[in-house]
Each structure stands twice: as C-alpha cells, then as structure tokens.
Target: Lipoprotein
Amino acid sequence: MAGLAVAAALVGGCSSKHEANDTLPSASSTAASPTLEPLGPADFPVPDEARTQDAAGAKAALRYYLDLVTHQQAKDGEPLRALSRNCNLCLSLADRADKDAASGYEVEGGKATITSLSEPAISGPHAEFSFSISQSAVEVRDRQGVPVPDRGSAEIPALTGAAAMDWNETKQAWIVSFLSFERS
Model:
C-alpha cells in the first residue's frame, strides 16, 4: 500500500492508506544504470530489479507498485499514473492521492504487507498475478490534525488481490494494466 489505500479501494472508495512493504527490492537508483531512464519519484525510484522483462522483474515491479501507492498517499498521483495504463483502480488511487494532497490531509498507518504472491503467469509481454496482503489500521487527519470522517479503517488481516502488468519497451518497465482487491 500516505499508504496503499487498498481497504477503501476494495470495500468502498479508495480512501485509506498503506505503508510501504518491508520486502521491497533494494532501491538501487536507476540513475546509476546508464541504459535505464529513471522512473518513479526521485525519493522512491523504480529499482533496477523491477526493470527486467522476466518473472523476477515482474514480481519486483508489482511489489514496487504496491509500495508506491503507499508512498504517494496525500502526495502527487502522477507517479502512479506513469506506471499504469487503463487500470481503473490505479487511476482512482492516483486521483485520491492528488485530492488528499490538495486537502492537506495526512495519513497514518495502513501498512500493507504482502503475505503471499504467486509466480506470475507470463505470456510474451503480459504478466498476471494473484496475491494476498494484510493492512494495518489507517487514520486520515485534516490540516488541524482532526480525523477525517469515513476515511480511516480498522486493521484488515486478509485481502486477496489480482494484478496484470504489461512490459513497456520504451520505458523498459512493467506497467500495471489491472489491479483489484477484496476481503478474504
């Protein structure tokens, strides 16, 4: 899953936040790789491990994207848009990040932890996954530090998800084309 916003997206409106996953691949800067154009926010670049057109790269890219959602909560949604195409939930999460930033909201909690992640089913430049995550409690506060009604959530111990990604030859990166979650 500032935060993954999975709970709200899954069960009613993309309104909660998640913290970054502890198992994210190392954030080696793509700026160090002369062949790869940097992608992602400057303070949270797409790691080189997520920029290979194979199963390991697809898994690293999905982990990164889920953590990017968390990283961008109440910030600029553009990095989420740049790494997705035709993904309704991705656009909703990006729009929510923009709206929360414009409202001056702060998001606490919402740490998303991937509890299982399938090997991707890869067909040419397309990868599909199933996975499970848990999410810690979330609280959204306004500029005065007051909780925003109907924007937080209790801990959600089990969510199941599905994702599809497509390899983008120009960006040399996996781009999310589908993302969904539901309570287990």
User: Anything to note?
Assistant: Residues 6-183 form a domain with the Nuclear Transport Factor 2; Chain: A, fold (CATH 3.10.450). Helices lie at 6-11, 55-71, 78-82, 88-103. Residues 48 and 64 are 11 Å apart (CA to CA).
